[in-house]
Amino acid sequence: MGRASQALKQVLEKFGISQNKLAVALGIDRSAVFKWVHDQREPTSETIVEVTKALKQINSDAAQEFVQLYLGNLLDDSEELGDE
């Protein structure tokens, strides 16, 4: 399962957000969200930004958790970025 798909699935389940509710917030068909959640299609980087914004409108904690699950501690570990 792709990292974005896995993160999205976890967040939707944990926060009780339906695929339809996210689709409505994004202004897209629910089938697109279904494909992301079921790892049939990986969202683009631009879509990840839009998903994060939509989740923030629905539940800011869900948005934060999605980013954390997707990116991990990217900004917390400066050594991995070459900043020693």
Descriptive keywords:
84 residues, mainly alpha, 434 Repressor (Amino-terminal Domain), 5 helices, 65% helix
In short:
The protein is mainly α and 84 residues long. The chain has helices at 3-15, 19-26, 30-37, 45-58, 60-71.
Give a structural overview.
- This protein starts with a helix and ends in a 13-residue tail after the last helix.
- The chain has one domain (3-73): lambda repressor-like DNA-binding domains (434 Repressor (Amino-terminal Domain), Orthogonal Bundle), CATH 1.10.260.40.
- With 84 residues, the chain is mostly helical.
- It is built from 5 helices and no strands.
Rg is 13 Å
Structural class: mainly alpha
Beginning-to-end CA distance, first to last residue? 33 Å
Averaged pLDDT: 89
How many structural domains can be distinguished in the coordinates?
A: 1
Total helical segments: 5
Shape: globular
- Roughly what fraction of the amino acids lie in strands? under 5%
Low-confidence stretches: none
> Would you identify the CATH H-level superfamily?
lambda repressor-like DNA-binding domains
The name of the CATH topology is 434 Repressor (Amino-terminal Domain)
In N-to-C order, the SSE pattern is HHHHH
Main sheet overview: none
Number of E-type strands: 0
What is the correct CATH architecture? Orthogonal Bundle
- Fraction of residues in H or I helices: 55-70%
CATH class: Mainly Alpha
